[in-house]
Design a protein that fits this description.
The chain contains nine helices and no strands. It has one domain: MFS general substrate transporter like domains (Growth Hormone, Chain: A, Up-down Bundle). By secondary structure, it is mainly alpha-helical. The radius of gyration is 20 Å and the shape is globular.
């Protein structure tokens, strides 16, 4: 079965696959890392670190989304998506130097903020560019790429930590995250061209620009 999709949606899904495959490497062993490598690390620290990420990411998506909805075009959505991924991708490198719970809490705060930015922009771009008549298929492919990437990487991550330790795995997570963000550079022109076209029309005929809004 051959599935056709437009360039923007294809890149968004591919970026997700790479980015979440990276984070999937540490999902199964993150609690073990905290207990073994963080001074004072215990189940309470594990729970708190996890909660900081999920609660902050969930709460911040609302104001970020409201802000982006006030902006015309997709330039700001794109900026939030890429910037958020880049911020989140730096967090695994921070794990290399984390030794106390408060280090972890700061990193989880940064991670949650970055992902809230990225998801707010990503959702807007994906929704606007999804191919009409293929909404269920393309949302399904998006969810599948996330799930397969995370699931397959979990097996690899556990094995890699056993063989090489935590640090090489964290570096791998950061590199894959950065690659996921870099992939989105391939659709920058697709997303900002409409904004540029509007600016050209404005300077060519200001009266028509306002009347056509």
């Amino acid at each position: 079965m051959r599935i056709k999709m437009n360039r923007v949606v294809r890149y968004l899904i591919l970026s997700d696959l790479v980015f979440y495959a990276g984070w999937g490497l540490i999902t199964p062993i993150f609690a073990i890392f905290i207990i073994e490598k963080i001074h004072g690390g215990d189940p309470i620290v594990v729970g708190l670190a996890t909660s900081i990420y999920w609660i902050l990411m969930s709460i911040l998506r609302i104001p970020f989304g409201v802000f982006l909805d006030t902006k015309k075009g997709e330039k700001d959505d794109y900026a939030f998506t890429v910037t958020g991924l880049l911020i989140a991708s730096l967090v695994p490198f921070g794990y290399l130097y984390a030794t106390y719970p408060w280090h972890l809490y700061i990193l989880q705060t940064i991670y949650g903020t970055g992902m809230a930015m990225s998801l707010a922009g990503w959702s807007a771009i994906f929704t606007r560019n999804i191919d009409k008549g293929h909404e269920s298929t393309e949302w399904g492919l998006s969810a599948t790429s996330y799930s397969i990437g995370t699931g397959a990487a979990g097996i690899i991550g556990g094995y890699a930590v056993e063989k090489f330790g935590f640090n090489p795995v964290f570096i791998g997570v950061g590199i894959l995250g950065l690659l996921g963000a870099i992939l989105l550079f391939g659709i920058k022109r697709d997303l900002v061209k409409e904004h540029r076209a509007s600016v050209v029309r404005f300077y060519a005929n200001p009266r028509d620009f306002f009347l056509n809004k």
